[in-house]
């Protein structure tokens, strides 16, 4: 019996050490959630940042998928940095979309969130048949980001070196929307510690 108890104690200690959630404060968990919310808001789910792989994930490290990074960059700035969005000033402009944003902000947003360096370019999403045109300086696009309200609760986070695994729930209008598992790395951007996403996998929509 004594032997059994000590074995349990060893197992217990193992789990306490393996589960390093205690290392994060509520504020840190909140900042992780805030970091993840734009991904669900702009419907970028089930991806990783590798160049390839044989699973069902979208591989954002593959240059063929750069559309998704540029589209995220535009959506993010429309929503969170609206002052960077300008009307096209050229009355004879032949490019598609009345609104513009300087490509440098798209590169910066992609670097910040994904730690991926992109070249600004005209991109097409073959599935959606949407083209975002780049004129060498600015991207052209139309429309606004839909106003649906999302938030994220990280319920459990574990750290392994610079990599943090996060488990939690995305909420839409304060109702549970999808469960997720994300991995991000601690990443210095413009001198500040933030996260860069490594992968995000979401569950079915919660009815
Ligand atoms: Zn224009």
Mean of residue pLDDT? Answer: 89
- Span of the ends, CA to CA: 47 Å
Number of strands: 11
Report the portion of residues in β strands.
25-35%
Order of the strands making up the biggest sheet: 2-1-11-10-9-8
Summarize the helix and strand pattern as letters. Answer: HHEEHEEHEEEEEEE
Overall domain count: 2
Q: What kind of sheet is the major sheet? A: 6 strands, mixed
Shape: globular
Pairing-aware structural class of the strands and helices?
A: alpha+beta
Radius of gyration based on Cα positions: 20 Å
Hetero ligands: zinc ion
Q: Which parts are unreliable, with pLDDT below 50 for 5 consecutive residues or more?
A: 10-17
- Helical proportion, percent range: 25-40%
Contiguous helical run count: 4
Quick structural summary:
The protein has 207 residues and is an alpha+beta fold. The chain is 29% helix and 33% strand. It has helices spanning 2-18, 26-41, 66-80, 103-114; strands at 47-48, 58-59, 86-87, 99-102, 123-125, 130-134, 138-141, 150-160, 163-172, 175-189, 192-202.
Topology record:
Elements: H1 2-18, H2 26-41, E1 47-48, E2 58-59, H3 66-80, E3 86-87, E4 99-102, H4 103-114, E5 123-125, E6 130-134, E7 138-141, E8 150-160, E9 163-172, E10 175-189, E11 192-202
Parallel strand pairs: 1-2
Antiparallel strand pairs: 1-11, 3-4, 4-7, 5-6, 6-7, 8-9, 9-10, 10-11
The protein binds zinc ion.
Zinc ion binds near residues 90, 95 and 140.
How would you describe this structure to a colleague?
The structure is a single chain. Helices cover 29% and strands 33% of the residues. It has helices at residues 2-18, 26-41, 66-80, 103-114, and strands spanning 47-48, 58-59, 86-87, 99-102, 123-125, 130-134, 138-141, 150-160, 163-172, 175-189, 192-202. The strands form 2 sheets. A 6-stranded mixed sheet has the order 2-1-11-10-9-8. The protein has a 5-stranded antiparallel sheet with strand order 3-4-7-6-5. The protein is globular and about 55 Å long. Residues 88, 90, 93, 95, 140 line the site of zinc ion.
């Amino acid at each position: 019996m004594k032997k059994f108890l000590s074995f349990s104690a060893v197992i217990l200690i193992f789990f306490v050490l393996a589960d390093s959630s205690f290392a994060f404060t509520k504020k840190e968990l909140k900042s992780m959630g805030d970091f993840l919310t734009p991904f669900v808001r702009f419907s970028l789910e089930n991806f990783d940042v590798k160049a390839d792989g044989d699973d069902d994930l979208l591989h954002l490290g593959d240059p063929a998928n750069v559309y998704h990074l540029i589209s995220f960059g535009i959506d993010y700035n429309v929503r969170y940095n609206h002052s960077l969005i300008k009307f096209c000033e050229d009355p004879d402009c032949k490019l598609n979309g009345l609104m513009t944003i300087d490509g440098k902000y798209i590169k910066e947003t992609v670097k910040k969130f994904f730690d991926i360096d992109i070249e600004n370019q005209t991109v097409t999403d073959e599935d959606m048949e949407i083209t975002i045109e780049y004129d060498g300086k600015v991207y052209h696009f139309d429309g606004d980001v839909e106003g649906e309200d999302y938030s994220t609760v990280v319920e459990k986070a574990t750290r392994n070196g610079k990599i943090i695994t996060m488990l939690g729930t995305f909420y839409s209008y304060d109702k549970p929307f999808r469960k997720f598992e994300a991995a991000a790395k601690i990443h210095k951007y413009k001198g500040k510690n933030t996260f860069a996403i490594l992968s995000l996998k979401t569950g079915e929509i919660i009815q």
